[in-house]
Amino acid sequence: MKKINTSPISGTQELLPETQVLFDKLKTGVAERYRAHGFLNIETPMLERTEVLLAKVGGDTEKQIYKVAKTNETMEDATEALRFDHTVPLARYIVEHESDLTFPLKVSQMGENFRGERAQRGRFREFYQCDVDIIARNELPLFYDADVISTLLDAFSSFGLKTPVLARISNRKILKGLIEGLNLQEKAADIYSIIDHSEKVPAEKTAAAFDEIGLNPDEKAKILEFMEISGEAAAVAEKIKALGVKNSLMDEGLSELTGVAENLTAGGYDNFIADMRIVRGLDYYTGTVFEFILPEYKDIGSVCGGGRYENLAEYFTDQKFPGVGGSIGLNRLFFVLNEKKLLKDVEEKPVDYAVVPISDKENAYAVKMANEMREKGATVTVVAGDKKLGDKMKYASKLAKNAIVIGDAEVASGKYRIKEFN
Prior knowledge:
By secondary structure, this protein is of the alpha+beta class. It has helices at 17-36, 50-53, 60-64, 87-97, 143-157, 172-181, 188-196, 203-212, 217-227, 233-241, 248-266, 330-339, 363-375, 389-399, 408-413, and strands at residues 40-41, 47-49, 67-68, 80-82, 105-114, 126-135, 166-171, 230-231, 272-275, 288-293, 304-309, 323-329, 351-357, 380-382, 400-406, 418-420. Helices cover 39% and strands 19% of the residues. The strands form 3 sheets. It has a 9-stranded mixed beta sheet. A 4-stranded mixed beta sheet has the order 14-13-15-16, with helices on both faces. The protein has a 3-stranded antiparallel beta sheet with strand order 2-4-3.
């Protein structure tokens, strides 16, 4: 009987070893694809000054961060907190080290973040984010938007999924230009929010929300028509122009959208569409925005997202650092893929070989053999003890893909057989 409650805190992930192997394999696959695309990995501290984390955002974010109080310090006096994403620490990192960095900087970050949200099934308070960002001084060519998207598409290809992934791409300038063309700037925040949440509620509720913020029938019809436009980028651009709203910012956004699409196509990618429902909720996106979905499992929602921001570090410096980035929330992604059995059917065991000495006399030889195999790159465990050989083999079969039994004959001859566990 338990003396105390030993279950993990809600909103955290705790896996058995054989499942942890699968999670680590996803994480390794992402890291390898990021590295293959030329991204340089960095790590920023989990602890940041609270003033840094809240420099750009406030409101609900302040309620969700985990403050860290030192000994004899109250929470009200705490000046440090756990990071809630990689983007704000990256902005601080760029400002702190900008004289030692080479721009454009292609950087990846893979680490844990913390948010004091209400824990829900498949949503975590402690979670891994796998980010890629490209940061420049003053100007960042549009080419890099497609570079980030293609990197993330390749990361998903490393998972061996049983279902395809689709990138949905838009540009914030298009909707902003449409809103300006309709003279609805004062209602822009509400319009963004309604569109951003439109796929999570019935269509009639979305239409009613536009009525509630005071759109007239013509304005409402234009916005609703705009939201339904998706498909091949050039065709999408023509449909948007057909709305009859003239605005130079909207034209600029359409040009950037088709440019990103052309760069992706030139790179051999075809699993993407332009989609005007993609606006992204974070306020620092200013151009390209994107989300990835699994079209056959739309109920999962977005499995990756990101976009372009014109000034990453504006709250920390007067210098301009535009960038583009994207993030994979690994814990949530792993949870939904594993729950729906969308990962390829591979029984993963954490160890390549179990060396099983029949008695203690063979232990020294078993250790020597194991070290030689490790030097060649194998993962090896030695199964020692005075249990019967059958019990040792049963134990080995749970941990290892293969077993090597070592007795007097194997020690004398230096030869052995490898038993492969099915």
